[in-house]
């Protein structure tokens, strides 16, 4: 069972990485932890921004980008979280994401509109999204704070380590 769950989580991360690349092709930059709505001030998550690239166009169209992520309307959409954002070990009614970016100055999510050109360590060496057990709703514009001198606790789904998607689209287990 554990091997099947790991395989499904790898698939989820690959789908998320592919959605990031498709978002990049359209917008010429990666999404960030806190995306601005059309009004230039309302915040929403990258997990909302990449919905059209995860075959969740209808859910994206229902989400109100001009309202806060926790508005009454947007809160009703929490229960419709795409399964791609849920680790197979989590309860099927969970509304917390299992996949997060690392936010900080030296991460992909540390700069507004990061481009491939600015990934100086190479895409195969740069973490894009990680699996981690957190109680953060999938629409909330919040990820995991990161600084190179203090690594946050990640994973929680398997004893061997945690899975991470890299900017080149690969997924690896990190011990």
Structural class: alpha+beta
Our Rg estimate from Cα atoms comes to 15 Å
Helix residue percentage: 10-25%
Strand content: 5-15%
SSE order: HEEHHHEEEEEE
The average pLDDT score comes to: 92
Instruction: Kindly report how far apart the N and C termini lie.
Output: 20 Å
Cross-sheet strand order for the largest sheet: 3-5-7-8
Count of alpha/pi helices: 4
| Largest sheet descriptor | 4 strands, antiparallel
Stretches where pLDDT is under 50 for at least 5 consecutive residues are none
Number of strands: 8
Q: Sum up the overall morphology in one term.
A: globular
Overview of this protein structure:
Helix content is 23%, strand content 14%. It is an alpha+beta fold. Strands 3-5-7-8 form a four-stranded antiparallel beta sheet, with helices on one face. Strand 7 and strand 8 form a beta hairpin. It is globular and about 40 Å long. The mean pLDDT is 92.
Topology:
Layout: H1 2-27, E1 35-36, E2 43-44, H2 46-49, H3 57-62, H4 72-75, E3 99-100, E4 102-103, E5 127-131, E6 144-145, E7 162-166, E8 171-174
Parallel strand pairs: 4-6
Antiparallel strand pairs: 1-2, 3-5, 5-7, 7-8
């Amino acid at each position: 069972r554990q091997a099947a769950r790991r395989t499904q989580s790898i698939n989820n991360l690959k789908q998320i990485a592919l959605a990031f690349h498709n978002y990049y092709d359209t917008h010429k930059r990666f999404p960030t932890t806190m995306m601005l709505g059309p009004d230039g001030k309302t915040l929403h998550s990258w997990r909302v921004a990449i919905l059209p690239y995860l075959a969740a166009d209808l859910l994206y169209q229902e989400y109100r980008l001009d309202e806060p992520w926790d508005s009454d309307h947007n809160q009703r959409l929490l229960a419709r979280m795409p399964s791609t954002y849920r680790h197979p070990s989590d309860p099927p009614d969970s509304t917390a994401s299992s996949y997060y970016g690392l936010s900080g100055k030296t991460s992909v999510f540390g700069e507004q509109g990061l481009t491939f050109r600015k990934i100086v360590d190479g895409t195969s060496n740069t973490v894009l999204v990680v699996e981690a057990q957190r109680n953060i709703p999938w629409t909330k514009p919040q990820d995991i704070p990161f600084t190179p001198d203090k690594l946050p606790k990640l994973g929680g789904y398997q004893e061997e380590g945690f899975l991470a998607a890299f900017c080149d689209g690969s997924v690896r287990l990190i011990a």
